[in-house]
């Protein structure tokens, strides 16, 4: 959420790269999804993503920007722009060993980091009740620890 003008960044990159060079970005958007309906629409986990987007909007940085990067690259003059969206599991639910490991890392990231980052923003940026947030966070943690919840986030 630090970059406020992505089109300008893409233009600067384009203007400073030599012909044949490339510029690569990766980023996730906490737009939590499930292909099998195991993530209910009223999920506390989904609510955490909404809080992130509300905070980003409030400080003038859209949390949706990674979904616009391809357009920004093309508008800046880059050619043959390729966008690859990966489904990153949010806990170790997949059967595939590699995806299971990625899900374990993602779960650790949520459990150990995201809650604290969002808690601070929830209080300082949104000026909301920290007690409500802690209850919501506890519900979201319970949901994401459930191996029967097959959620993922786009990267």
UniProtKB/TrEMBL annotation:
InterPro entries: SAM-dependent_MTases_sf
UniProt-recorded name of the protein: Tam domain-containing protein
Species for this entry: Fusarium pseudocircinatum
């Amino acid at each position: 959420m630090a970059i406020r003008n992505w089109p300008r960044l893409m233009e600067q990159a384009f203007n400073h790269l030599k012909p044949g060079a490339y510029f690569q970005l990766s980023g996730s958007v906490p737009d939590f999804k499930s292909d099998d309906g195991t993530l209910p629409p009223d999920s506390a986990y989904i609510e955490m993503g909404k809080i992130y987007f509300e905070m980003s909007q409030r400080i003038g940085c859209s949390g949706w920007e990674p979904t616009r990067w391809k357009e920004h690259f093309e508008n800046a003059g880059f050619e043959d722009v390729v966008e690859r969206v990966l489904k990153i599991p949010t806990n170790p639910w997949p059967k595939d060993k590699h995806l299971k490991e990625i899900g374990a890392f993602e779960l650790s990231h949520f459990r150990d980091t995201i809650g604290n980052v969002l808690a601070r923003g929830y209080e300082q940026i949104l000026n909301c009740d920290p007690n409500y947030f802690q209850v919501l966070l506890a519900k979201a943690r319970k949901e994401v620890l459930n191996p029967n919840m097959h959620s993922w986030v786009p990267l």
